[in-house]
Amino acid sequence: MTRLIGALYLAPIDQTKTHRILDIGTGTGVWAISIADDFPDATILGNDLSANFLSAAPPNVKNLTPGGYAEFQDFNLLYYSEDGTLTLNHALREWITALCGAAESLGRDPNPGSKLKAWVREAGFKGSCTRGTGFPLVMNGLEGLSMRLYCGVLGWREEVRGLLTSVRRDLADTGVHALFICEFFVPLQAGMNKDR
């Protein structure tokens, strides 16, 4: 994500006043390590489902110091193209639509990005800086994304490999300009410009 947005974060953070940073969904820890370099006086707490990280966040992780910031970033996985080059007839569109449907059948929302603003406002935050950005797709990790949901939920077997071959073909086609949206949401302090 950092490479895609060109920064570690978007919130207008004062480094001299920042003492604690929480990274939820830490993954490998690369972001937490990078932000620690930028904020040497801050304590960075990384949290992930991986066995290498804490199994539960401390009870105070939802509390922000007055004047603090929370920045939320998440994806909307329903792929699209701004120029109409990705159509309903493409294997890529068939694949992601079925994948999202399988996730929804398990009670998982594959498209939380567009809901961030409402969720954070419901939690009592005021004002916002929002940005949705389209990012190009990559071929890495198709099997990892697909096999559990296609085989375990949808009941597919070997036919999923054939679909993935077609998906790779669509992704390699320079005439198909498929994107996905990542939503960025920063609740703002009182007195700052709203809804940019």
UniProtKB/TrEMBL annotation:
Q: Name one Pfam family in it.
A: Methyltransf_25
Q: Which SUPFAM superfamilies does the record cross-reference, listed alphabetically?
A: S-adenosyl-L-methionine-dependent methyltransferases (SSF53335)
Looking up CDD domains in the UniProt record yields:
AdoMet_MTases
Residues covered by the Methyltransferase domain: 21-72
**InterPro entries given for it?**
Methyltransf_25, SAM-dependent_MTases_sf
Source superkingdom: Eukaryota
This chain's protein is named Methyltransferase domain-containing protein
Native organism is: Parathielavia appendiculata
